[in-house]
Backbone:
């Protein structure tokens, strides 16, 4: 029977995720030579070739992919075992580490933590702000136990590493200068703003969401200004420099800015939570998920 080594299997899986020995070494806080040595030893233990030279890089063999398919099932089962053992040992206590994107922290994570303080005061929730890509890297590396992200940037449902749980459909409202001619127009549609100057991020999730929403309404938004933070975006709207789509979770009252709900062609962004597959059975993670569901609402009121 082959000698399966969990530590070395984790190194192989990280190499598959990161693509290079150097990136794998950085992720696991090892040296590249130590990564190569561990994978060479694993190949000897299993009696198969795991890596092939591909120019200056390495490529996983078919045998390596076969090993990884079984390794994913092993890691999921170990997560379940760890979750059950942790629940047995900790009872109501313990620690759950949450990685969440910026607007989800005040709108979802903080209310969930306050709720848990009343119902499970011994459960310690540690929060780490992280955007979508980083959150899944942290989750995969074991640095957080639960990640909040947007569905558009969540792993595929076929990804064996994670279980993804839908949380919230967050409406997108339009922010206009208070003296804009359409600020009080009845039955405002997104398509009514096709000729406006738009403010949104130069790249990343929010740029993609804004462009996709406008294209669905029949036009391509003319980007006049680029900003990533909601304070900067709303300040420019307030100054009459353009209009912007703002998620309901991120919206805040600001003098000089009219927030309008789009009833006819209302776009949404979908918020999800993800855990390592098998970890959803842990008492602490399960309670945090329940609290997040409780504070999530599909129809948040305008601020």
Residues:
């Amino acid at each position: 029977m082959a000698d399966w080594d969990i530590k070395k299997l984790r190194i192989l899986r990280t190499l598959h995720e990161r693509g290079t020995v150097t990136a794998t070494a950085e992720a696991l806080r090892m040296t590249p030579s130590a990564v190569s040595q561990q994978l060479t030893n694993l190949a000897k233990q299993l009696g198969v070739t795991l890596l092939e030279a591909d120019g200056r890089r390495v490529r996983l063999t078919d045998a390596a992919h076969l090993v990884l398919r079984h390794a994913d099932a092993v890691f999921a089962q170990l997560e379940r075992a760890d979750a059950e053992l942790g629940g047995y040992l900790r009872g109501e206590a313990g620690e759950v580490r949450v990685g969440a994107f910026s607007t989800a922290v005040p709108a979802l994570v903080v209310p969930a933590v306050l709720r848990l303080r009343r119902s499970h005061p011994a459960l310690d929730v540690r929060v780490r702000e992280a955007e979508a890509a980083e959150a899944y890297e942290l989750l995969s590396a074991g640095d957080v136990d639960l990640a909040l992200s947007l569905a558009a940037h969540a792993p595929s449902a076929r990804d064996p590493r994670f279980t993804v749980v839908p949380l919230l459909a967050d409406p997108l409202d339009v922010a206009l200068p208070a003296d804009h001619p359409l600020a009080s127009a009845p039955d405002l549609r997104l398509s009514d703003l096709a000729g406006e100057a738009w403010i949104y991020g130069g790249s990343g999730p929010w740029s993609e969401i804004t462009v996709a929403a406008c294209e669905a309404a029949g036009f391509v938004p003319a980007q006049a200004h680029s900003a990533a933070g909601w304070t900067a975006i709303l300040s420019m709207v307030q100054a009459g420099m353009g209009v912007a789509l703002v998620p309901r979770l991120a919206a805040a009252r600001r003098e000089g800015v009219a927030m309008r709900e789009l009833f006819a062609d209302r776009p949404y962004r979908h918020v999800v939570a993800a855990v390592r597959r098998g970890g959803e059975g842990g008492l602490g993670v399960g309670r945090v998920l329940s609290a997040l569901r409780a504070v999530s609402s599909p129809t948040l009121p305008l601020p």
User: Anything to note?
Assistant: The chain has nine helices and eleven strands.
